[in-house]
Amino acid sequence: MGKTYVFVNQKGGVGKTTSAISLGAYLAEAGKSVLLVDFDSQANLSNGIGAGHGKPGVYELISGTATLEQVIRSTEIPTLQVIPASIDLSGAAVELVEEEGRDFFLKNALAPIRDRYDYILIDCPPSLGVLTLNGMVAADAALIPMQCEYFAMEGLALLLQTIKRIQKKLNPSLEVGGLFFTMYDSRTRLAQEVVTQVSAYFKQKVFTTIVPRNVRLSEAPSYGQPISRYDPNCSGAKAYKSLAGEVIRRGA
């Protein structure tokens, strides 16, 4: 059976979507079958992987107006597929609140294909709202990208409290698959302190790979390509390739 990960962080701009795309691409290039699920109405993952944000997509899937076969799209990497999002998903957040069983829409929708992929990676909005809640209920483990700054540490405490509540009430099997640092600038003392403090507290839960600040990572989405195809020799690409290796080895 494959494993389903959800990328979560209620703080925006931490590299969550970039991490989902980049990690997914390198897992696929390592020979794994991977499905990316864009569960954010901004559809940044869909555009960043070159899938566009047309319909049908994840909104039509959870609303029952499209099948899995209709919404899954191929990418330029043969073993990497994606379910795209659209702005319609923002309306789904309102609809889900009003529906019975609202916390399990995504889990139920993906259930038939969980064994089809080695990895399913779910990208959620930068919030702890109903869409992110759905993502965590559908997942086996949460991957948490952290920017190396003070406010990121404050937000981490709130996120972990939310994960504990979900474990208690909705998804007892949900684990913290791991934390990893993004946008790291070794020249700043704060970045070094954040890495030291978080690593000391979470120990084995922290991946050893640290993703540096890298302009090529920011450029790649505008070309609809993962960094593994856009510039595989840049420092950001090498970091995500290393992170993919850790995920495979650790079964995080």
Automatic annotation (TrEMBL):
Source organism superkingdom: Bacteria
One Pfam family named in its UniProt record: AAA_31
Protein name: Sporulation initiation inhibitor protein Soj
UniProt source species: Treponema primitia (strain ATCC BAA-887 / DSM 12427 / ZAS-2)
Domain AAA: 3-176
